[in-house]
Write a structure and sequence with these properties.
It holds the Pfam family STAS. This is Anti-sigma factor antagonist. Belongs to the anti-sigma-factor antagonist family. InterPro entries: Anti-sigma_ant (IPR003658), STAS_dom (IPR002645), STAS_dom_sf (IPR036513). By secondary structure, the protein is α/β, with parallel strands linked by helices. It has a single domain, classed as 2-Layer Sandwich (Transcription Regulator spoIIAA). Helix content is 32%, strand content 28%. The protein has 3 helices and 5 strands, in the order ββαββαβα. Strands 1, 2, 3, 4 and 5 form a 5-stranded mixed sheet that branches. A hairpin with a 3-residue loop joins strand 1 and strand 2. The radius of gyration is 15 Å and the shape is globular. The termini are far apart.
Length: 120
């Protein structure tokens, strides 16, 4: 499977980078390049790496995320992970890197629309 990346400017000086697909030895460089490109165009207050649509990430992908974090940090830009898929969340937790990326909760489809019934 391939990887596609969408970049969006959000309010408050935030740039979102949203990869979709698998981040592995063949595609990890795309994540690094996306972060570097955002930093080359300016200095946002924060970069949010939205990992909701990432179905797989290997050690090379994790390394690319760490390299991106370090590149952003040198530029005084905070890089955080938002909405990690359950797989990504697990990989960050197992590697001990969850806290580095802001300790995000895993994304659950439909979680925002779930109703709590009275007496439940």
């Amino acid at each position: 499977m391939s990887l596609s990346i969408v970049k969006s400017v959000l309010s408050g000086g935030v740039v979102e980078i949203a990869p979709r697909g698998e981040i592995d030895v063949d595609t990890a460089y795309e994540v690094r390049e996306a972060i570097a490109e955002v930093l080359a165009k300016g200095r946002p207050l924060r970069i949010e790496l939205n990992m909701r649509l990432v179905t797989f990430i290997d050690s090379v992908g994790i390394s690319a995320m760490v390299a991106g974090f370090q590149t952003a940090e040198v530029s005084d830009v905070k890089l955080v992970v938002t909405e990690p898929s359950r797989f990504v969340h697990r990989q960050l937790w197992v590697t001990g890197l969850l806290g580095l990326f802001g300790a995000p909760e895993p994304y659950f489809a439909g979680a925002a629309t779930r109703e709590v019934l009275p007496g439940a």
